[in-house]
Amino acid sequence: MTNVDDVKERFGRTADRVAEHSAKQIENVREEISALLVFKGDELVVDVGTGAGTLARAIAPLVREVVGVDAVPELLAAARASAPANVTFVEADATSMPLESFSFDIAMTRRTLHHIARPELVVAELARVTRLGGRIVVEDQIAPVDPLAALEVDRFERARDRSHTRLLPDVDLRHLFEANGLVLVTRRYRTERRSLDEYLELAGCTGEEKDRAAALSPGGRDGYVAESAWYVLRR
Ligand SMILES: C[S@@+](CC[C@H](N)C(=O)[O-])C[C@H]1O[C@@H](n2cnc3c(N)ncnc32)[C@H](O)[C@@H]1O
Q1: Mean pLDDT (whole number) for 20-33
Q2: Cα gap 219→44, rounded to integer Å
Q3: How far apart are CA 47 and CA 197, in angstroms?
Q4: Which of 22, 58, 129, 179 sits at a 20 to 30 Å CA gap from 78?
Q5: Could you give the CA distance from residue 195 to residue 223 in angstroms, rounded to a whole number?
């Protein structure tokens, strides 16, 4: 089961605005990751589901080399156009990457798992490509603990963006990490209030579709509150 065609359609169509949004986030993401992980400066890092390269570009000055992986060529073109020399990109599906096992010091993924029909395959891939003793970093929006509340959030997210699959709750993410033998080192939870209009438009959700999605917003039409988490794990 794969939904990569939905992902290619959605992100190919909105690549310009996603790239613009990505560029604005780089400084903040660098601050967030620097507060969680100490870099020595010689690391080889992979950023899986890199998009326009937000995380890859954020950490590029802190490490030796970064490889960004994504399935959407339009996003990779935008990422290549603005990345520093120590960042390269590979077009591939995150559930089965053409990368050698145990070859990276750190494997990261940010805001990607909820776009993937089988996120457990991506977590397994992150574990596979990381050397023993290396680090894995996962950041994503997390589902409310109450399954009915989670269903409401997913219904809204899917109305906004067909490539959304499902937000995982904290407990499911932890089980996926454990199942791959990963040991949790640190985690940080964050609450983010998003402007509904901007959030819908970022996904190319306009006109009647936008009205339909806005009516499903769990926070009403004024805003949307998203809970997310960073996890740092040891391989
Ligand atoms: C919300 S964006 C996040 C992008 C980037 N990580 C960031 O932090 O800005 C989700 C990304 O996951 C990528 N993606 C989704 N499914 C994928 C798959 N199966 N293989 C590779 N990339 C995928 C999309 O193309 C998109 O770039």
Answers
A1: 96
A2: 40
A3: 29
A4: 129
A5: 5
Residues in a beta bridge with 193: 225
Position 223 pLDDT exceeds 80: no
What single letter denotes the amino acid at residue 230?
Answer: W
Distance 72 CA to ligand 1 centre (A): 8
* Mean pLDDT of the 212-225 span: 87
Ligand 1 mean position, distance from CA 50 (Å) = 6
- Expressed in angstroms and rounded, the spacing between residue 157 Cα and the centre of ligand 1 is 15
Residue 66, pLDDT score: 98
The CATH number that applies at residue 133 is 3.40.50.150
Q: 0.90 cut: is pTM over it?
A: yes
Count of structural domains, the chain: 1
* Separation in Å, CA 172 to CA 27, 146, 191: 30, 13, 19
Q: What is the mean pLDDT of residues 208-213?
A: 94
Mean pLDDT over residues 151-166, rounded? 96
Domain with 172, as residue range(s), is: 4-143+163-189+227-234
The residue whose CB lies within 8 Å of the most ligand 1 atoms, and thus the one to mutate among 16, 20, 70, 190, is 70
Q: How far does the centroid of ligand 1 lie from the alpha carbon of residue 111, in Å? A: 7
Quick check: is 132 in a domain? yes
How far is Cα 233 from Cα 52, in angstroms, rounded to an integer?
24
pLDDT of residue 217: 93
What residues flank ligand 1, with Cβ below 6 Å?
4, 7, 11, 22, 49-51, 54-55, 70-72, 75, 93-95, 110-112, 115-116
In angstroms, what is the span from residue 70 Cα to ligand 1's centroid? 6
Find the mean pLDDT for residues 49-72: 98
pLDDT given for residue 1 in this prediction: 73
